Amino acid sequence: PRQQHVARPAVGFAVLLGVALNVYGLFNPLTFSDIPGRSSGLYTNVNQSGAGLILGMIIAYEVVPARLRMLFVALTAVGIVTTFSRAAILGWILVVLYFALRSGLGIMQVRRIVLLCAVVLGFLVSPYWDNLHDTLEERGTLTLDVLQRLNLISGGGTADTSTQERTQVAAYAWRLFGDQPLTGHGTGQHRQLEGFDVSTHNVYLAMMVDHGILGLFILPALVLATMWGLRRAQID
Question: 19 near 79, Cβ under 8 Å?
Answer without folding.
Answer: yes
